[in-house]
Amino acid sequence: MSALNIKKGSTSHSAYNLRPTFSDVHETHTLAVIVDNEPGVLARVIGLFSGRGYNIDSLTVAEVDHTGHTSRITIVTTGTPQVIEQIKAQLGRIVPVHDVHDLTVEGPSVERELALLKVGSEGDKRVEALRLADIFRANVVDSTLDSFVFEITGAPDKIDAFADLMRPLGLNEIARTGVAALPRGS
Amino acid sequence: MTRQMTGAKMVVQALKDQGVDVVFGYPGGAVLPIYDEVFQQNEIRHVLVRHEQGAVHAAEGYARSTGKPGVVLVTSGPGATNAVTGITDALMDSIPLIVLTGQVPTFMIGSDAFQEADTVGITRACTKHNWLVKDTANLSDVLHQAFHVATTGRPGPVLVDIPKDVQFASADYTSPQKAKTSHYQPRVKGDLAAITDLVAAIETAERPVFYTGGGVINSGRAASQLLRELVDATGIPVTSTLMGLGAYPASGDNWLGMLGMHGLYEANMAMHGCDLMINIGARFDDRITGRIDAFSPGSTKAHIDIDPSSINKVISTDIPIVGDVAHVLEDLLRIWKSRGRKTNREGLGKWWDRIDTWRQVDCLAFKQTGPSIRPQHALARLEALTKGHDRYICTEVGQHQMWAAQYIGFEDPNRWMTSGGLGTMGYGFPASIGVQMAHPESLVINVAGEASWLMNMQEMGTAVQFKLPVKQFILNNERLGMVRQWQELLHGERYSHSWSEALPDFVKLAEAFGAKGILCQDPADLDDAIMEMINHDGPVIFDCLVEKHENCFPMIPSGEPHNKMLLGEASTKDAIKEGGAVLV
Questions:
Q1: Which stretches of chain A are DSSP H helices?
Q2: Contact of B261 with B553, CB cutoff 8 Å
Q3: Res B572: pLDDT
Q4: Which of B270, B232, B276, B227 is CA-nearest to residue B254?
Q5: Taking the CB of residue A151, how many other CB atoms lie within 10 A of it?
Q6: Quick count: other Cβ atoms within 10 Å of Cβ A146?
Q7: pLDDT at A1 (0 to 100)
Q8: Which of A95, B243, B378, B584 has a CA-to-CA distance to B115 between 20 and 30 Å?
């Protein structure tokens, strides 16, 4: 056996651990999927995730090439390395899918999400909300005498942090777009 | 030159241009314009089935036995939903099908119209791809693309849903040569570095085994030829999944027999004990692997598959090769030859010695004793009496299917049609109709159990109407034999609803349809009865009454690895443990 100059399959390590070949550490990956913008294509992608029991943490989709009719679906998903590889392979076999990029492993990338937060408060809390919004570079896009709607753009954890701060200050509604992501560089 | 024609005419024209000669279908309101065009031509034959599920299985039989895609034409709503089981079956077994469904007119879609169903929605999960065509101008492009998608890469069923107004409207027809090319172009050539790694592994391996699957057959005749050349030149033993039988001949020197849950002892022991497993076009199905964490624990695993998602899905692979079997084997052979045709002769010699000791167990041995026919004996006699014939075998699903795989030898690919992945009872009879349509002069036998066979027995009408001399060889044990076997092993011999009561008199049933029925229950009559079946020019229902409580062995109990096979009744007590009981 040692004559085989090939890395041994990890199946040989133990016969009695459950699925010893695959790590059970969960990772979060951001996938960019380029698809033909045709009816049902999103249903195919979502159906794949539900049908095979994969997770979707967030999903955004829009047509990015109006002449070529291609859309970009950005999916944030969580799973073991083996599940992530399966997700990519399964996405790749959907006929209208042109390309699947794993932005998490294909070098550095930027991720941005937009959120709208409605904060209803008066007095000091109202002033504090406005001050924190300024620190987070959130814009006021609507205002009444007892509420603001803030628009904030950034990485998902920045939005999480802003929402956490707004909660005691009267946050009563939040809308998030999900992640859009691009690799850095040319 | 472009030609204006109606959508309905386009359908028939596209089928002709794609080389289709047979369509299996059933008319209805939403496909009447297409049926009107079918009526007005003679190039494409239409086989009227008796149920849409039958149409799809017949098309599968046609496809598997010819290597060409099968074509199905059914109506909207119930026509489409009845086809779903067959379509799912084809998806699981990677069978190329083009399913054409009628749909209510575009302006009525979504209104819960008569015989409306969301066909593309329902079949999205059970097709390789599907289309709803809303504009006649796109129809011919979509039809040609449908053939392309169904037949390239890992084959599979596709569905084109055509609303009735799209069938009536006219537009320009595009020929296949001028149709829009699809970006869907799966890679067929394997990575040469990986193939070279596999060659190096073959050169030194002491205990290698080829584990081949349906991918070899789907890849075409050339793939089977290359496999035979590779196996015979290297002297490496070869086993196959249920789907891959016939790719390497059963009479070949290196043949170990089928592997898996009801596979042969020597095949499973070789899989368990090998140091190099070369998976060619198989997918590590759970019927093959048994207990995953104890599957072939000491081996390096190579996996050749055209579908990247098959690799590392179930079993971690050391040498993954994505590509078409024929292309990869061609490169593999070329590289192996150019490096001096080396194998580890000493190791291989010892390996064969060990395999021979396993062979001596003679796991399929049985004795025909007693007054009733044992099912193994019935199949052994069927094999002996039909061996020399130009023969195609279909099966239903259950014990008889496993016995057929064990006792019938397949010398060529495309001769064996069985529902492997989905395990669809009712598959075999309509499949045999599809096979006979493609091979009118051949002997087509469906090995069946009485329960499976009854699931699509309405197709007797089709067989008689189209004068298809299909032989329905029913091993009648008045039981759902495989269910009964599991209840015996797993559920304390409580045989909940696993017997067939109120069975028809199969001879009279055959006669009622205008066919021939043969009843056989005495072992002494069996040979003559089988000869009578073979020699009858027309469809036959052969009701072979067999031993009622026979179990199918060898068997790997659920939750156990390959080396824990059960070889017979004596070894079954408490064979399936708690963990295995939850598995299927």
A1: 41-51, 81-92, 123-135, 156-166
A2: no
A3: 65
A4: B232
A5: 14
A6: 12
A7: 29
A8: A95
* CB contacts, 8 Å: A11 with chain B: 293, 295-297, 299, 301, 315-316
Whether the Cβ atoms of residue B539 and residue B470 lie closer than 8 Å to each other: yes
DSSP label at residue A168: G
**Long-range CB contacts (within 8 A, 24+) of A59-64:** A59/A178, A60/A177, A60/A178, A60/A179, A60/A180, A63/A37
Range name among A177-181, B256-260, B409-413, B560-564 with the lowest pLDDT average:
B560-564
Residues of chain A with CATH 3.30.70.260: 27-102
B164 a catalytic residue: yes
The architecture CATH gives domain A109-183: 2-Layer Sandwich (3.30)
Q: Quick check: B319 contacting A, CB < 8 Å?
A: yes
Q: Residue A161: phi, psi to the nearest 5?
A: -65, -40
Provide the whole-model pTM: 0.93
A186 pLDDT tier (thresholds 50, 70, 90) = confident
- From chain B, the residues in CB contact with A18 under 8 A are 293
CA pair distance B460, B539, nearest whole angstrom: 8
pLDDT score of A16 more than 60: no
Closest CA relative to residue A90, chosen from B183, B151, B243, B154: B154
CATH number at A27-102: 3.30.70.260
Predicted confidence (pLDDT) per residue in B359-391, tens digit: 999 999 999 999 999 999 999 999 999 999 999
pLDDT confidence of residue B561? 85
pLDDT at B186: 93
Question: Which residues lie below 8 Å from residue B376, measured CB to CB, with a gap of 6+?
Answer: B364, B366, B403, B406, B407, B550
Residue A41, min C-alpha distance to chain B (Å): 10
Catalytic residue among B39, B41, B114, B189: B114
Q: Residue range B521-542: average pLDDT?
A: 98
Model confidence band, residue A5 (pLDDT cutoffs 50, 70, 90)? very low
Mean pLDDT over B189-196 rounds to: 97
Q: Is B200's CB within 8 Å of A6's CB?
A: yes
**Given B103, B145, B147, B164, which residue is catalytic?**
B164
Mark yes or no for CB contact B275/A10 under 8 Å.
Answer: no
Q: In chain A, list all ranges with CATH 3.30.70.1150.
A: 109-183
Cα distance between residue B444 and residue B534, in whole Å: 9
Whether B1 is a known active-site residue: answer: no
DSSP state of B366: -
